[in-house]
Amino acid sequence: MTDAPSAEQPGSAPAGLRALLPDLAPWRASADFRRLWLSGLITNFGSFLTFVALPVQIKELTGSAAAVGAIGAVELVPLVVFGLYGGALADAWDKRKLILWSEAGQGVLCAALLLNALLPTPAVWPLYVIAAFSSALTSIQRPALDSLIPRIVAHDHLPAAAALNALRWQAGGIAGPALAGVVVAYAGLGWAYAVDLLTFAVSVALVVGLGRSPASHEAQKPSLKAIAEGARYAWNRKELLGTYAIDLAAMFLAMPLAVLPFLADELDAEWSLGLMYASIPAGALLVSLTSGWTSRVHRHGRMVVVAAVGWGLSIAAAGLAGDVWLVLLLLALAGGFDMVSGVFRSAMWNQTIPDELRGRLAGIELLSYSVGPQLGQVRAGGMAAWTGVRASVWSGGLLCAAGVALLALCLPKLMTYDVRTDEHALRLRERRAPGAEAGAGTSAA
């Protein structure tokens, strides 16, 4: 049902347009969500400066592509270990304190990068040590961030919150690297690290104002047993298991970033490399800016599958296309599909996982959406060396589409999931209803 034209206020957007615009309900209703969103926007923007500056500095100091690639290797182990343990910490400790101290720790690491860059002869080894510690702190912080959102946002506003959070990441993902290239080229590495340090200071000031978010009474202390309990819960929830498996398959089989420089060369369009990197987040940004419709979708699992297949087919088409502008368009389309998948994965996680397990499950989620892209870079590069660059891209996309379809057949609960009837979603909605003992959707004062 739509509003009659006469009901619209003068100067307001048409009803159809309002239905596409992002749903700002979480922003309006929760002061803590606003603080967290702004903190994430600012620190994410600054972190992309370091994301670009760090490999550039290693390249300048060593002249070795292998040395630059080793950054991913030193980040992977802390990501896995601390992602799982960080989830257990998020369930057992005050989430606000975890976020605050890990954000402050990232600022200290950034200060160390700045000091090293200012030395007459910067050392190489601290760059790897700092990258590893930064990966560990990120892995501790992300489960706390993810598990805090269902506490500070109303249950029915969680899909909108996922879209708004994605919008924040995409804004930083597009503007951050673009600015970083200019800052590093014209002002120097020290300025990139200095600006990032400033963003951490602002972010910490915002996080300080968050309300307390203590552990629930049912939460276990951090331990291997607690981590194993979270893994068993995920295994027994086949619809959740499907979201993890599909995201891993999509990123492992069809993530093309590692071969984009070579794809640009094959298309005789070296000038397009920056646009290629920006196309995927730009497509995701477009979906976020028109994400109002996501709050009216109830079969989230089905949308995850459709979007992941769309991602794979778009990447395959980009590998087959011979025109650079068509490649850019298809990469943007792939980014849009990836965004749709991400919104509905987050909605399923946030609307069905009980609070006492939310941190541990967020740790598993962190692995599903972080490890996949890193392994995907290895796959793309290896297949490119074996079969050629374009074959690596299009074959990976087709394998992704086929793999996701097979997973959907093997996990029927994912396809039949409906937030209106799912027992876990209904139980959590009842627990979070106003007046319910288990919580009222806001963090403790």
Question: What are the SSEs and their pairings?
Answer:
Layout: H1 15-20, H2 25-29, H3 31-62, H4 65-92, H5 95-118, H6 125-152, H7 158-186, H8 189-208, H9 224-236, H10 238-254, H11 260-266, H12 273-289, H13 300-320, H14 324-352, H15 358-387, H16 389-410, H17 412-416, H18 423-431
Notes on the structure:
The protein is mainly α and 445 residues long. Helix content is 77%, strand content 0%. The chain is built from 18 helices and no strands. Helix 3 runs parallel beside helix 7 (158-186) and helix 13 runs antiparallel to helix 16. The longest helix is centred in the first third of the chain and has 32 residues, at 31-62. It is globular and about 55 Å long. The two termini are 39 Å apart. Residues 1-13 and 437-445 have low confidence and may be disordered.
Kindly provide the radius of gyration, computed on alpha-carbon positions and rounded to a whole number of angstroms. 22 Å
Strand content: under 5%
Looking at how many chains there are and whether they match, the oligomeric state comes to: single chain
Number of strands: 0
